[in-house]
Design goal:
The chain is mainly alpha-helical. It is globular and about 50 Å long. It starts with a helix and ends with a helix. The relative contact order is 0.15.
């Protein structure tokens, strides 16, 4: 009887094992929806969130630079003007498409930067203009479409984004409810995130 029960149960057990879904780890995309930047900026206040956004963006671009151009002490990176330094541990690469030479050179500028110090500098009034400007200029140069406006005119595009951001954030000093438009200060930064998403979409493998 025990042998018969085992024989009856074994097919069902095998079918259950066959129907068990297999877990597949899919790498996370580094793209961030532009509207996330606006919404999170409202809750965290624009000046604070833009510092975090700057840190996160620089961290991802530094890792990408090391992945594409090699470690910072690699001759290829030194030829691109990156000073020798000890690279940080990297996560598994989730990009299959290699950037062209222009994008490689643009990425090289992020290889020797300190994301933490740059992000911290974005919290300091007046001084924050420099790290934010250099970051947005670097993002405009990473746009894959050579005919796009930010790629062709990086300084003008950066000036428009930075000027709009500073103008909206300055409205926070106004009395009464006149300060409320300052909550929209992350809209220009969302534009920069949109440009960056184009780069990640260009190099990341499709799902």
């Amino acid at each position: 009887l025990k042998w018969l029960e085992h024989k009856r149960m074994s097919p069902s057990i095998s079918r259950e094992s066959e129907s068990t879904p297999t877990t597949v780890n899919v790498p996370d995309s580094r793209q961030q929806p532009a509207w996330h930047v606006i919404v999170l900026g409202v809750f965290a206040t624009p000046p604070i969130y833009v510092a975090y956004w700057g840190y996160k963006t620089l961290r991802d671009l530094k890792r990408e630079s090391i992945e594409v151009n090699g470690p910072i002490d690699d001759p290829r990176a030194q030829a691109a003007g990156i000073k020798p330094a000890k690279p940080a541990p990297l996560p598994p690469r989730n990009c299959e498409v290699k950037p062209d030479q222009h994008l490689k050179d643009s990425l090289a500028t992020f290889g020797a930067l300190s994301p933490f110090l740059r992000g911290l500098g974005m919290l300091i009034p007046l001084f924050n203009v420099y790290p934010l400007t250099t970051l947005i200029i670097g993002v405009t140069k990473l746009v894959p479409d050579e005919s796009s406006y930010p790629r062709k005119h990086p300084l003008i595009a950066t000036g428009c984004v930075l000027g709009a951001f500073l103008a909206l954030v300055a409205l926070a000093r106004l009395p009464g409810l006149l300060w409320m438009p300052s909550l929209l200060g992350l809209i220009p930064i969302a534009v920069a995130q949109h440009w960056l998403n184009k780069y990640w979409a260009h190099v990341e493998s499709p799902d």
